[in-house]
Amino acid sequence: MAEQALIIIDVQNDFCPGGALAVADGDAVVPVINRLQQQFALRVLTQDWHPADHSSFAANHSGAEPFSMTEMPYGPQVLWPSHCIQGSDGAAFHADLETDGAAVTIRKGFHRDIDSYSAFFENDHKTPTGLGGYLREQGVSSLVMAGLATDFCVRFSAVDAAKLGFDVTLVDDACRAIDMDGSLEDAMRDLEENGVKRVNSATLV
Predict the structure, then answer these.
(1) Residue 21: count of CB within 10 angstroms of its CB
(2) Domains in the chain, ordered, with CATH?
(3) Do residues 58 and 79 make contact, with C-beta atoms less than 8 angstroms apart?
(4) Which uninterrupted H or E stretch holds 92?
(5) What is the mean pLDDT of each run of 10 residues along the chain (205 residues)?
(6) The pLDDT of residue 201
(7) Where are the alpha helices (DSSP H) in 39-137?
(8) What SS3 state is found at 181?
(9) How many CB atoms are closer than 10 A to CB 68?
(10) What is the DSSP letter of 83?
(11) Where do the DSSP E strands lie in 94-187?
(12) Which of 9, 120, 153, 180 is least enclosed by beta carbons within 10 angstroms?
């Protein structure tokens, strides 16, 4: 049983330079995460896994621009460029990311009508992905998080984990942000308010 797990969030081609929803310098997290992995017996990967007709894609809303906002039954939703489409190269993990040692891969965002930033809950904040239960069954109480993007999927995963009672640490240099309209500042405030610790990878490796 492992008391601590490394959660590696959405290090996929579409979130790296050249991808459909590229995060600036996104591929720079890969060598940092690969070094971190050696410190953890239990590693979990998450993967955005959208159908082509996903409701969060601007292309599926007539006249909508990417990065505009819409209202969904579960609340406000950013309309994204089409990305991480199931089975596509863009949805694949970055080629240099070490994935063989992962215990499990959690796919999210595969329901057409609801997005899923968090590794723990879909965007209605109540439909679970199953990750929380899996970690509990493995005896995990402490999580270290890394990946893309700091202000969306990493943020919501870390905050949800903290609310579920896990001790959560975010590795700053193993993450990169989109930073859309102040989203990074909002994320930092949210993380702090929910007791998420922040460290540099050098303190863990």
Answers:
(1) 23
(2) 4-203 (3.40.50.850)
(3) yes
(4) none
(5) 91 98 97 97 98 98 96 95 98 98 97 96 95 97 98 97 98 96 95 98 92
(6) 97
(7) 131-137
(8) coil
(9) 13
(10) -
(11) 104-108, 142-148, 167-176
(12) 180
* Tens-digit pLDDT profile for residues 42-59: 999 999 999 999 999 999
- Asked, as a colleague might, if the bond just before 149 is cis with ω within 30 of 0, I would say yes
Q: Show which residues are catalytic.
A: 10, 108, 153
- Token code pair at residue 10: 């959405």
pLDDT for res 1: 63
Range 121-127 contact pairs with CB under 8 angstroms and sequence separation of 24 or more = 121/160, 122/74, 123/72, 123/74, 123/75, 123/77, 124/74, 124/75, 125/74, 125/160
pLDDT value, residue 205: 82
The beta-carbon contacts of 190-193 under 8 Å, at least 24 apart in sequence, are 190/155, 190/159, 191/155, 191/158, 191/159
d(CA 8, CA 119): 10
Phi, psi of 24 (to 5 degrees): -55, 125
Decide if 7 contacts 153 (C-beta within 8 A): no
Q: How far is the C-alpha of 9 from the C-alpha of 197, rounded, in Å?
A: 17
Strand 142-148 relative to strand 197-199: parallel, antiparallel, unpaired?
unpaired
Rounded distance between C-alpha atoms, residue 141 and residue 138, angstroms: 9
Helix (H, G, I), strand (E, B) or coil at 149: coil
Neighbours of 171 (CB within 10 A): 25
Helices (H), 38-115: none
